[in-house]
What does this fold into?
Amino acid sequence: MASTRDVLAMLDELIALTTLDEESPQSFKVRAYENAKLGLESHGQDWLGYSIKELTEIKGVGKATASKVREFIDTGRVEKLETLRAEFPPEFAELARIPGVGPKTLKLMRAELDINNVEDLRAAVAEQKIRDLPRMGAKSEEKIGKAIDRLGLTGKDRRTPIADAMPLAERLVEAFLALPSVTDAAFCGSLRRMSETIGDIDITVAATDPGPVMDAVRDRSEVHEIVVSGDTKTSFLTQQGLQIDVRVVAPEHFGAATLYFTGSKAHNIALRQRAIDRGWLLNEYGLITKLDDDAPDDAEPEVIASETEASIYQALGLSFIPAPMRESTGEIEAAAEDGAPVINELIQRSDIRGDLHYHTDRSGDGRSTVAEMVQVAADMGHSYLAITDHGEDLAINGSNAEEMLEHREVIAKIQHDHPDMTLLWGCELNIGATGGLDYDDDFRALFDYTVASVHSHFDQTVAKQTERLVAAIADPTVDSIGHLTGRYIGRRPGIEIDVDIVLEALMHFDVALEINGSLNRLDAASDVVRRAVERGVKLVINTDSHHTSELGRMEYGVLTAQRGWAPRDQVINTWDTDRFMAWVSSHRDS
Ligand code: DGT
Ligand code: CA
Ligand code: CA
Ligand code: ZN
It folds into this structure.
């Protein structure tokens, strides 16, 4: 039985392939699917049982999409999607990820040069055939060549961006948890550790009977090819070539199994050594006593801990180490320390009290109204919220000064409906090529709170990019820096900067560094976060939401912060309203 998430994933694929088919993301059909997806995401009730007619009564859902949704729920397939899949196989569709290669160009490449996959494209670049296509040239050809190398789209060691792996893993875990014999399920491996790219997805399921779980895996609509089919392990490839390993273990071994399959390998090795030092053994079944060499043949080792990860860490004299920290970079020593301050002070999702990068439909790319966006933040229990629609320098999506002043009135009105929350009239400023910002200085100073980010000029020297950021950080109207490099993981590299100089400037001007929770961004990256933590740079974890469905990103931001060892007190949006507001005014005065 399909879940709502399965349906939304189906729509995502339909959107991607229809964009190729129609040669434009602006096509009527693509927009219709996108609007339907947003409508379904925002619809408060469970719509899986709705008829086509009832589906069309949901905001944004048209008849054509409604019937596809119904077809998918009823049959597990959509005929139109199957046609598109045949027309655009994954190795061709993935070329759309390359910056500078739009759907029109892609189709032309296939028609004119018979380019069907990245190897074909690489060869065509080498033979300088791309430059002769319409709207192309030597420069764009060279760019494409570089992009292919950078994105690692090719070869055995190709990796999947976390944004593609996470929703799939979450859906699968949700589906397994719903099976009758299942007591627990979790995705493990690099995905649970919040690596930016994923080799394969490792899912561990605790069940009293593995059979139904293995059957359920084989029945999933995501299965393209089964590569391992065992009694307790099934591995399959998705249409996109991503491998999923699903292992079933007995409920009493679940903790040991998730610990083992979460890794990292280096973390496991260090833990095992710790067990050996205590005369024990650690494996995927548990932490057990070692039998003496002269023990009788039928002697059974004693199980010290196995059902939960926490019990195993505890038996080894360690505080529980959150998965994102398990990279063998000092976390075991930190967890062994008296009182384990690093672990006890580590940021948790429950510490977060506000979101400070948040869009509404005032932004061209914002999809929900101020009232809707504020309501979901209130429902999450936030104490404060900075509404930071795009500044005027962002083409199409930005707002001019007059529009921003009107927006301030709208926000002030909605503030009346939410007396328990502090709403800040903010702005996402655009950092120009040399560090200039939107509006004039006096106008910028009016905003209650600002986040300044890079949205343009990605190709400059490291020195220029660094100078550019430092100039923005030094501006007295800037409170925080959003998505530091502007990267899209696996799609577009960010700007290259001298991280030390930028961190130094953030420290000097007391400006906060954002950890953007969008899985496409996770920017600043966890390694930069860790360096910022060491220096004492203030951090802020944001969703950068453009729609009410995107607030879940806060979780990913927090996990990235954990991967960077961020203590809660260094994250400004864990502070209570008074402390946070006092900081905003004091750092602007300094
Ligand atoms: P990936 O898939 O390349 O993004 O990275 P991982 O970390 O998910 O690696 P994977 O899928 O090969 O294995 C999942 C976990 O299983 C890994 O993090 C630790 C554990 N594991 C796998 N092979 C070994 C091994 O040879 N020794 C130990 N100690 N652990 C292993
Ligand atoms: Ca893996
Ligand atoms: Ca694996
Ligand atoms: Zn934004």
Summary: The longest strand covers residues 422-430. The chain has a mean pLDDT of 94.
